[in-house]
Amino acid sequence: MTTNDTKAKKTWRPATELVHGGTSRSQHGETSEALFLTQGFVYADAEAAEARFNGENPGFVYSRYANPTTAMFEDRMKVLEGAEAARATASGMAAVNLALMASVKAGDHVVAAKALFGSCRYIVETLLPRYGVESTLVDGTDLDQWKAAVKPNTAALFLESPTNPTLEVIDIAAVADIAHSVGARLIVDNVFATPIYQAPLTLGADVVVYSATKHIDGQGRCLGGIVLSDEEWIADEVMPFVKHTGPHMSPFNAWVLLKGLETLPLRVEKQTATAGRIADFLAGQSAVSRLIYPGRDDHPQADVAKRQMRAGSTMLAFEIDGGKEAAFRFTNALEIVKISNNLGDAKSLITHPATTTHQSIGEEARAELDISDGLLRLSIGLEDPEDLLEDIQGALDAIK
């Protein structure tokens, strides 16, 4: 038996909610959130089991459906995001798949921005059409393309903002208006901006998804994802999908992610400050032909970024003159920054999208998205900014 620790309280600010929000304590009154490593739950008698299953007696039935530790993670994310309901998943891609599949049926249509993570494009371009759901990809920054693509049977619009890896910033409020004009739901992947710097639901989005593997954990420990939206849709569409297909987050991962949420603002704010410094440095280097950072005035969608993001966040992209060979030499010369396709970590991480995260979409699609062989994606960590700048300078010297 757990008791909710949230009492009647005034609204707290995000940093406080991320430490205390959604906490439930057992009869032992533990300080840290309890970790319920259990598959199932027992009942006092058969009548109690029947009442639990038919909904007369609310509570937990099976950890594939819900679990006390996972519920605390969901509740804390709901408070942070300003959502009515949430369901946690085993990974970020499970969250994306859940949000899309729970939004459509055979005969429906989905419109998505072209600039998506490779696995997200696979779901939209390849997986959904196998089940009778038509899809159309558009330039996410071109509102006219969104307007032209929607149809009477369009059920969902899907985008990332900022995008992976070229950090395009899409006007969420404007796309939400287009979605609602045909009765569709707008699903926004908010990973790069983080919930600290962007609130899609307040901008008109209907669903927000995260790979909690990234900034929410932030320390390279475990996988996780979450879908947040209104209570009715979560209960009627998402929960049956979770119950019958099994993408639910493990209690242990939920516990780790609860610990990550406690330090999320501190980490993201420090990483963002460093990212801004490194972006300014790279913008002045002769070997860098293109620098993309949403916190700079020279970003292609700077006006949109200032309107809907509170800061430029932790990610930047830049293009090295000399293509793949020069990009590889730069990357291999780094000592502190590690080569990894993950992001949002305490460690600074770099990847070459054309040969890793976006290799699967093909050369033509990469060219269309301006993912060149010289493009690198850099996720800024918690190291000393001076050490990172020296490391990057050393890598630049290595390619001269």
Tell me what you see in this structure.
By secondary structure, the protein is α/β, with parallel strands linked by helices. It contains 14 helices and 14 strands. It has helices at 14-20, 46-53, 68-81, 92-101, 118-130, 143-149, 172-181, 194-197, 231-245, 251-283, 302-308, 323-333, 363-368, 385-398; strands spanning 2-4, 24-26, 85-89, 109-113, 134-138, 154-160, 185-189, 207-211, 225-229, 288-292, 315-320, 338-339, 349-351, 375-379. Strands 3-9-8-7-6-4-5 form a seven-stranded mixed sheet, sandwiched between helices. Helix 1 runs antiparallel to helix 3. The longest helix has 33 residues, at 251-283.
Write the layout of secondary structure elements.
Elements: E1 2-4, H1 14-20, E2 24-26, H2 46-53, H3 68-81, E3 85-89, H4 92-101, E4 109-113, H5 118-130, E5 134-138, H6 143-149, E6 154-160, H7 172-181, E7 185-189, H8 194-197, E8 207-211, E9 225-229, H9 231-245, H10 251-283, E10 288-292, H11 302-308, E11 315-320, H12 323-333, E12 338-339, E13 349-351, H13 363-368, E14 375-379, H14 385-398
Parallel strand pairs: 4-5, 4-6, 6-7, 7-8, 12-13
Antiparallel strand pairs: 1-2, 3-9, 8-9, 10-11, 11-14, 13-14
